[in-house]
Fold this sequence. Notes:
- The chain has one domain.
- The chain has a two-stranded antiparallel sheet with strand order 1-2. A two-stranded antiparallel ribbon has the order 3-4.
- A hairpin with a 5-residue loop joins strand 3 and strand 4.
- The two termini are about 20 Å apart.
- About 25% of the residues are buried.
- The mean pLDDT is about 80.
- The chain has helices at about 5, 30, 65-84; strands at about 10, 20, 50, 60.
- Helices cover about 35% and strands about 20% of the residues.
- The protein is of the alpha+beta class.
Amino acid sequence: MSGLSIMCDQSATDTITTYVFDPRSLTHAQAMGDACAVCHVKWPRPRHPLGELPDGPEVYGCDECAGFVAAHTAQGRAHALAAH
């Protein structure tokens, strides 16, 4: 199980995968969008939306972690398609 799977749940939608992050697993800086939600890097400021908090605000990630999330999402879709 990846760290991303532990930190958040996937909402079931038809077109877009949205990760809902548990705010208890994030630091204040991560929850406010001032640090990457995965690796905690603060500079350059994370700009890639990775998901959201249960009450709606977006959670952001750095370039590298956004790539990991995209790969994780693509892998999940491939497994879902193979299951059908």
